[in-house]
Design a protein that fits this description.
heterodimer, A: alpha+beta, five-stranded mixed sheet, 26% helix, flat, B: mainly alpha, Cytochrome C Oxidase, Chain A, 0% strand, disordered N terminus
C-alpha cells in the first residue's frame, strides 16, 4: 500500500467517525432546527404564567369541548382517572381540571406524566399555567391524591376546531427505584418542558 | 510503490493452495469470488424466508406459522437480502472488476479487504442465531423502530451487534475502494476516462461512509435505551420514538442508492457493449449519479409522511423527492439513447440489462406516486409500497447484478456460459417476477396492509397468484446456479475480449485473467478508455 493510499484511508476513517458523531448530534439538532424554523408541531402544549393567561381575550360567544384521556404505563402500579371526562370552556377563560391518581402498590413510587394534545394544530393554542406534568409526582404506598391542571385555550384557535383532547400517560420515573429503597419523599422536582 | 500482495508470486501465476487460499486471501479476485458466493448463499436463505411468507399468505387465516414467526420472516428476509445478498454482491463485483478496470494490480489494502469479507459470516451468524433464542428473531420490521424493537428478547443485542459488524465491514470495503481508485489508476486513466461502473462505485462508497455510521449510532442508542437507562426514544424519559425514524431514514434513504447505484454502473457497461455504440452522455451520467447521491440526503422524511410532520416539512420532502426523478430520468434517457440505432444483439447480459431498464423505471414511477404526500397517506404500509420497493430491488438491482455476473462470467472462468440456459433463466425470471410483484400493486390500492400474516378473503385470488409467481421465481434462480457451476467446469473457450463490442482494460487481459494482473500498469489512451 502506498503512502498516498494510506493518507486517503485516514481521511475517510475520520470522516466515518465524524458521521457516527453526527448521528448523535442529530438528537439536539432536530430540536434546534424545529425551534429556529418554527416547525415544532408535535402535539406538545405550551406553559405560560397566570399573568399572561389573564391577558388572553375571552370569547363569550364560543364554546370549545376539551376531552381528557388518561393512561398508565403497564410498568407503573397506579390508577389514574380524570374527574370529568369532558368540559365545555370559553376560549380565554382559565379553567381547572382535576385528576385523581392512586398508588396501588405497597412502596413509594415516583411517576411522571407526559402530555399530548390532538388535533396537533390545536396544541399551539392550548396553554397551561399549572400542571402536574411539570414535575414528578411521588406517591407513598396506597396514597390517593388529587392533582390539577389549570389551562387556557387561546381565542385565536382556528374556527374549524371545536373539540380537542388532552391526553396524559403516566410512566414510572427513571429514579423511582432508588427512592423506593430509601423511602424518601423529599425528591427534588425536576421540570420537564412540556 | 510496492504492493505487499504482489511480491512473492509475481513471476509465476501460482496460487496458494488449500483452505488457506481463502481464509488468508489478500487477492482481490479470490475475495471477490468469496463475496459473490456468500451473496448467492444469502440470496437463497433470504429467498427461503420469502417462500415461508408466501406459503402462509397463500390462503387467508393462519395455516403454517404463528404470527410472531411470520413477522420474524419478513424482518430477517429484509435484513438478509439487503445486507447479506445485494450489498455483498455489489462489493464482490467491485472487488473483482475495479482493479482490472483501472489497471491496478490489486486493491489498495488487501489485508483490510480480507477482514471486510470475513466479518460478514460472523455478523450473519449473530443475526441468524437469534432464531434459537428466548424471544425469537427480530420481528419488528427491518427498520427496527422503537418501542416495538425493544420488546425483542435476548436477540436484541445480537441484532444490534450484527448491524455494527455489517457497518464496519461495508465502511472498510468502501474506504478500500475509494483509496484504490484515487491512488492506483494506471497512467492515463483520468477520472473522466473511468468506466461508469467504477464511477458509480466511488459514489456508492462515499454514501456508505456517510450513511452507515449514522445507522450504527441509531442502533447504539437503541442498545443504551434498553440496557443502560438512556431515553433517546423513550417518552417516559423525555425522549421521542419518532426521533429514531428521523435518524434511521437519514441512513435509510442513502442506503437505497447504495444498493442501486452499482446496478446502474453494471448496465452502463453492458448496454454500450451489445448496442456496439459508446455510452450516450458519459459526463451527464457521472453528474446525474453524483446528483442522485447528493439529493438522497435530503429526502429521508418521505418515508414518514404519516408519522406527523408540519405542512412545510411535508411539502419540502415531497418536492425534494420529485427532484431526484430528474437525474434518474437523465440516466434512463441516456441508456435508451445508447441503444438508439445501435447494432443490438440480445445475449443474456443484455436481456437482463433491458429488463432492469424497463422494470426499474416502473418501480421508479410508483416511487414518485408515493413521494406525493397526500396520496402516500393511502399507500403507506400497504402492499403498494411492497410492490414498489420489490420492483426496484429485484428486477432493478438483482437483475443488474445477475446481468453483471453473465457479462463477466466468461472473463472470470475463461469459458462461455450456456447461452440457451441463460435465456431460459432470463425469460422465466422476468415472467415470474412480474406475476410475483405486479398484483401487489392492486392489493395495496385495495387496502391490504403489509407485515400481516392474515388478510380479508377478497384478497385471496391475487395472493394465490403472487405465491405461485414467487415459487416460480425462486425455482428459476436455480438455473443461475447451474449455469455458473457448468461454466466454472468448462465449455467453449472465451476470447480475451469475450464480447464483440466490449471495451475497457479488463478485456485486454486473458480470460481467465492471471492471478496477479497489471503488475506493470498499462498505458491508457483516449481510444481505449471507457466504452
Amino acid at each position: 500500500m502506498s503512502a498516498a493510499a494510506t493518507r486517503t484511508a485516514k481521511k475517510l476513517f475520520i470522516f466515518a467517525i465524524a458521521m457516527f458523531g453526527f448521528g448523535y448530534a442529530m438528537v439536539p439538532l432536530y430540536n434546534v432546527f424545529c425551534d429556529v424554523t418554527g416547525l415544532r408541531l408535535k402535539g406538545k402544549t405550551g406553559e405560560i404564567t397566570e399573568t399572561v393567561a389573564a391577558t388572553v381575550y375571552v370569547d363569550p360567544n364560543r364554546l370549545v369541548t376539551v376531552a381528557f384521556d388518561t393512561n398508565v404505563n403497564s410498568a407503573l402500579p397506579w390508577r389514574f382517572k380524570a374527574q370529568q371526562y369532558t368540559m365545555k370552556v370559553h376560549p380565554g377563560v382559565i379553567t381547572e381540571a382535576v385528576f385523581v391518581v392512586e398508588n396501588n402498590s405497597n412502596a413509594t413510587v415516583i411517576g411522571r406524566a407526559v402530555p399530548s394534545v390532538v388535533p396537533t394544530q390545536a396544541a399551539l393554542f392550548f396553554n397551561k399555567t399549572e400542571c402536574f406534568c411539570f414535575t414528578k409526582q411521588t406517591l407513598t404506598a396506597g396514597e390517593r391524591k388529587e392533582i390539577v391542571v389549570r389551562f387556557v385555550v387561546d381565542s385565536k384557535l382556528p374556527k374549524k376546531i371545536n373539540t380537542m383532547t388532552l391526553s396524559y400517560t403516566f410512566y414510572e420515573a427513571a429514579d423511582s427505584k432508588n427512592v423506593a429503597q430509601s423511602d424518601s419523599n423529599t425528591v427534588k422536582a425536576i421540570d420537564i418542558k412540556s | 510503490m510496492s504492493y505487499a500482495a504482489v511480491h512473492d508470486d509475481v513471476h509465476h501465476d501460482h496460487k496458494p493452495t488449500g483452505i488457506g487460499r481463502w481464509l488468508f486471501s489478500t487477492n482481490h479476485k479470490d475475495i471477490g469470488t468469496m463475496y459473490m458466493v456468500f451473496a448467492l448463499i444469502m440470496f437463497f436463505i433470504g429467498g427461503a424466508m420469502a417462500m415461508v411468507i408466501r406459503l402462509e399468505l397463500f390462503q387467508p387465516g393462519l395455516q403454517f406459522v404463528d404470527p410472531q414467526f411470520f413477522n420474524s420472516m419478513t424482518t430477517v428476509h429484509a435484513l438478509v437480502m439487503i445486507f447479506g445478498a445485494v450489498m455483498p454482491a455489489g462489493v464482490g463485483l467491485a472487488n473483482w472488476m475495479i482493479p482490472m478496470m483501472i489497471g491496478a494490480p490489486d486493491m489498495a489494502f488487501p489485508r483490510m479487504n480480507n477482514m471486510s469479507f470475513w466479518i460478514l459470516p460472523f455478523a450473519f451468524a449473530l443475526l441468524l442465531s437469534t432464531f434459537f433464542m428466548q424471544g425469537g428473531a427480530p420481528a419488528g420490521g427491518w427498520t427496527m423502530y422503537p418501542p416495538l424493537v425493544l420488546q425483542l428478547g435476548d436477540g436484541l443485542p445480537f441484532l444490534i451487534f450484527a448491524v455494527h459488524f455489517l457497518g464496519i465491514s461495508s465502511i472498510m470495503g468502501a474506504i478500500n475502494i475509494i483509496a484504490t481508485v484515487f491512488n492506483m489508476r494506471a497512467p492515463g486513466m483520468t477520472f473522466m476516462r473511468l468506466p461508469l461502473f467504477v464511477w458509480t462505485w466511488i459514489i456508492t462508497a462515499f454514501l456508505l461512509i456517510a450513511a452507515m455510521p449514522v445507522l450504527a449510532g441509531a442502533v447504539t442508542m437503541l442498545l443504551t435505551d434498553k440496557y443502560f437507562g438512556t431515553a433517546f426514544f423513550d417518552a417516559a424519559g423525555g425522549g421521542d420514538p419518532v426521533l429514531f425514524q428521523h435518524v434511521f431514514w437519514f441512513f435509510g434513504h442513502p442506503e437505497v442508492y447504495i444498493l442501486v447505484l452499482p446496478s446502474f454502473g453494471i448496465i452502463s457497461q453492458i448496454i454500450p457493449t451489445f448496442a456496439r455504440k459508446p455510452l450516450f452522455g458519459y459526463a451527464s451520467m457521472v453528474y446525474a449519479t453524483a446528483s442522485i447521491a447528493f439529493l438522497s440526503f435530503f429526502v429521508w422524511a418521505h418515508h414518514m409522511f404519516t408519522a406527523g410532520m408540519p405542512l412545510a416539512g411535508e411539502l419540502f420532502f415531497m418536492y425534494a423527492t420529485m427532484a431526484i426523478a430528474v437525474p434518474t430520468g437523465v440516466k434512463v434517457f441516456n441508456w435508451t439513447a445508447t441503444m438508439w440505432r445501435g447494432s443490438m444483439t440480445f445475449e443474456t447480459p443484455m436481456l437482463f440489462s433491458i429488463g432492469v431498464l424497463f422494470m426499474f423505471t416502473l418501480g421508479g414511477f410508483t416511487g414518485l406516486m408515493m413521494g406525493i404526500t397526500p396520496v402516500d397517506f393511502q399507500y403507506h404500509d400497504t402492499y403498494f409500497i411492497v410492490a414498489h420497493f420489490h420492483y426496484v430491488l429485484v428486477p432493478g438491482i438483482v437483475f443488474g447484478i445477475i446481468a453483471g455476473v453473465y457479462y463477466w462470467l466468461p472473463k472470470w472462468t475463461g469459458y462461455m456460459y450456456d447461452e440457451t440456459l441463460g435465456k431460459w433463466h432470463f425469460w422465466l425470471s422476468t415472467i415470474s417476477v412480474n406475476v410475483l410483484f405486479f398484483p401487489m400493486h392492486f392489493l395495496g390500492l385495495a387496502g391490504m396492509p403489509r407485515r400481516i400474516p392474515d388478510y380479508n378473503t377478497q384478497f385471496t385470488d391475487w395472493n394465490q397468484i403472487i405465491s405461485i409467481g414467487g415459487l416460480a421465481f425462486g425455482l428459476s434462480q436455480l438455473i443461475l446456479v447451474w449455469v455458473v457451476i457448468k461454466c466454472v467446469r468448462g465449455g467453449e473457450k472465451a476470447t480475451d475480449q469475450v464480447w464483440e463490442g466490449a471495451h475497457g482494460l479488463e478485456f485486454t487481459l486473458p480470460s481467465p485473467p492471471p492471478f496477479h494482473s497489471f503488475t506493470t500498469p498499462p498505458k491508457v489512451t483516449e481510444a481505449m478508455a471507457h466504452s
